[in-house]
């Protein structure tokens, strides 16, 4: 099991920590005020091969600060791309913004996710998420950190057999909607 520290989102990317340190240094001398991270001003990063299958892109949005103990990023998965199995010590929200994809908890069938869906991944629950076989997926990942700065524990990759079974399970899953 691999451990990644906080300022690194759920992807373990040290470049984001460097960018955040630079941004915080610029703000320290200024009085408290709104700060705008201009769209396109932060460099996108590839999803590290050890934590992703296929091509994933991480666009950092914000990092942990003195007031908010969570980081956020757009994560885009090309068709067939997915994260490895992992857990979060404080949980994670995924807000699907584009495309169609999958998420799966260990021991449960995969579920299809699409724009407008919000997925809550509870603390310590082993799961993965990513694109469909023929569709890309983009979500905003909002990931809190624990007191040690850790926000994810990476595990083994989702193999092709698991991914294929997830595709089948998601097609066959009927979501019940309560009318009460």
Descriptive terms for the model:
disordered C terminus; alpha+beta; 180 residues; 16% helix; three-stranded antiparallel sheet; disordered N terminus; single chain; six-stranded antiparallel sheet
Lay out the secondary structure.
Blueprint (H helix, E strand, L loop, with lengths): L1 E4 L8 H15 L16 E2 L5 E2 L2 E7 L7 E8 L4 E2 L2 E2 L4 E8 L1 E5 L5 E3 L4 E4 L5 E5 L5 E8 L5 E5 L5 H13 L8
Antiparallel strand pairs: 1-14, 2-4, 3-6, 4-5, 5-13, 7-14, 8-11, 8-13, 9-10, 9-12
Task: Write a short abstract of this structure.
By secondary structure, this protein is of the alpha+beta class.
Describe the structure.
- The protein has a six-stranded antiparallel beta sheet with strand order 2-4-5-13-8-11.
- The longest helix has 15 residues, at 14-28.
- Helix content is 16%, strand content 36%.
- Mean pLDDT is 84; it is low at 1-27 and 174-178.
- The protein has two helices and 14 strands.
- It is an alpha+beta fold and 180 residues long.
Topology, number of strands: 14
Average pLDDT rating: 84
Strand order, biggest sheet? 2-4-5-13-8-11
Query: Which of globular, elongated, flat, extended, rod-shaped describes the shape?
Result: globular
| Biggest sheet character | 6 strands, antiparallel
Which sequence of SSEs, written as H and E, runs from N to C?
EHEEEEEEEEEEEEEH
First-to-last CA distance: 42 Å
Q: What is the structural class?
A: alpha+beta
Rg computed from alpha carbons, rounded to a whole number of angstroms: 17 Å
- Low-confidence regions: 1-27, 174-178
What's the number of helices? Answer: 2
- Helix amount, in percent? 10-25%
Percent in strands: 35-45%
């Amino acid at each position: 099991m691999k451990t990644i520290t906080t300022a690194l989102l759920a992807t373990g990317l040290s470049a984001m920590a460097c960018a955040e340190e630079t941004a915080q240094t610029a703000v320290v001398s200024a009085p408290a005020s709104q700060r705008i991270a201009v769209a396109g001003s932060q460099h996108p990063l590839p999803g590290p091969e050890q934590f992703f299958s296929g091509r994933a892109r991480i666009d950092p949005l914000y990092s942990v600060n003195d007031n908010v103990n969570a980081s956020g990023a757009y994560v885009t998965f090309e068709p067939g791309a997915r994260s490895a199995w992992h857990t979060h010590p404080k949980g994670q929200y995924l807000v699907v913004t584009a495309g169609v994809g999958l998420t799966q908890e260990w021991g449960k069938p995969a579920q299809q996710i699409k724009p407008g869906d919000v997925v809550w991944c509870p603390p310590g629950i082993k799961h993965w998420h990513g694109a469909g076989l023929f569709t890309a997926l983009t979500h905003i990942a909002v990931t809190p950190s624990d007191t040690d700065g850790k926000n994810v524990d990476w595990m083994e990759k989702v193999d092709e057999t698991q991914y294929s079974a997830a595709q089948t399970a998601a097609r066959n899953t009927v979501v019940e909607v309560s009318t009460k």
